């Protein structure tokens, strides 16, 4: 049995078994499949971390492209994410469902933009990005709570990536001296 509620000019359908609805959206629609990181966001433990793990091969592929293609694809992935995450969160009737991990995928790819393609740097980028994404220091938490829609879902991870990039840049500077 489904219940239908009208919420700001769109109908939200809530099924009696939300897991069936979640799996149907996350695994059986193209938007859900991407937003849920090919299913990684359905992990019962640390879905954001699982989504960031899924980002690693994409980040490696991007790092092997020219700077032009790296940034073009990353910016396109961000704007796709704004639309994608907004659409899926509307379907789910939740502002920022924890299983939506496209933002983590884009955030990690941004985090690795200026680091060497070496496992130590990739691991440091992974750990820093997860720390900033989980703990959300100022103003990340404020953006996460106050900016809605797909842009709100994406922007806090972009800022977590920028914080991570700053620390990685400092580490590179001091390690090269």
Question: Topology of this protein?
Answer:
Blueprint: E1 2-7, E2 10-15, H1 18-28, H2 30-35, H3 47-63, H4 67-92, H5 102-111, H6 119-135, H7 140-146, H8 149-176
Antiparallel strand pairs: 1-2
Helix pairs in contact: 3-5, 4-5, 4-8, 5-6, 5-8, 6-8, 7-8
Describe it.
It is a single chain. By secondary structure, this protein is mainly alpha-helical. It has one domain (about 1-175). The protein has helices spanning about 20-30, 30-35, 45-65, 65-90, 100-110, 120-135, 140-145, 150-175; strands at about 1-5, 10-15. A two-stranded antiparallel sheet has the order 1-2. A hairpin with a 2-residue loop joins strand 1 (about 1-5) and strand 2 (about 10-15). Helix 3 (about 45-65) packs across helix 5 and helix 5 (about 100-110) runs parallel beside helix 8 (about 150-175). The model is unreliable at about 1-15 (pLDDT under 50).
Measured as a percent range, the helix fraction is 55-70%
The beta-strand count equals: 2
Uncertain segments are 1-16
Strand content: 5-15%
Quick summary:
This protein is mostly helical and 177 residues long. 69% of the residues lie in helices and 7% in strands.
Keywords, separated by commas or semicolons:
single chain, 177 residues
